Fold this protein.
Amino acid sequence: MATATIDPTLTLQNTPQKSQNRVVIEEIPGLIRVHKDGHVERPQIVPCVPCSLAPDLGVTCADTIIDKYTNIWSRVYVPNAAAKLPLLVYFHGGGFCVGAASWSCYHEFLAKLASKTHCAVASVNYRLAPENPLPAAYDDGVKALVWIKQQESVGSNEWWASKCNFSRIFLAGDSAGGNIAYNVAVRVKTAAVKGLVLIQPFIGGEARTHSEKYSAQPPRSALTLAASDAYWRLALPAGADRDHPWCNPTASGAAELRRLGVVVCVSEMDILRDRNLEWCESLVNEGVKVEKVVCKGVGHAFQILDNSRLSQTRLHELFSRVKNFVNR
């Protein structure tokens, strides 16, 4: 069994001294601390890195601004290829509250994803809650997709645009990013989007599933039930509970997805396992073409936080499934 973990003690020493007198109203240790006066701390538990890559990977990478006023930007990965490549628009995880396209774990993962699947990847950096609660992340995702599609036009100054096949766009993301990809797909009706890749999509509900109640998680699991509940309290609109459709989608919006293919990656040891499996079933019942991939023996965020041999095996299996899906 391989379960991804984080160590919240690594960056607590970086907490500003002046915050000690503030009243904390919400905290996920090591990741985010929200104060009553609205001040938000995000210790740098994962380093942010520039867009450099090892030459032998065969991938070119650069950052590009989408909207300077709201600080939406994208890190684009393009593998060396003669033909135009499918384009995967990717949204990082982090419970809508933490994370960045420049986090080292995402930089390494998406560079490998681009290389192994032979597709270009545009990793979107969106606004975070609680400063920008939902639907801000969905709005940013829509804006990013529209902007990316506009780069197809003649005269685009983006170097990567000439490398992409804009008639084959896929929306993807892990955890909260999977939730964002889904909600962007049901909002933007364009024939250019051919499918979704949802990795451990972060969804919830007031009633607990079996895996939420009984899945044994290590103390520093990437997603505990307490952390999940805290993320939803911070991300959802004021007054909403976990049965809000942005958290508990059931099959809402499924009609918009019937023309698309959907790959859902479910981790066996994840507290989200049963909820993800139930959602897959509800989508299938609504006529959506769903390919369910159950990753045995691994937990939430294994693809970015766990370097065990088992996790690396499951990661390469995931790369293979994504490669086959986007290159059909």
The mean pLDDT is 92. The helical segments are 104-117, 136-150, 176-187, 210-214, 225-235, 273-285, 302-305, 309-326.
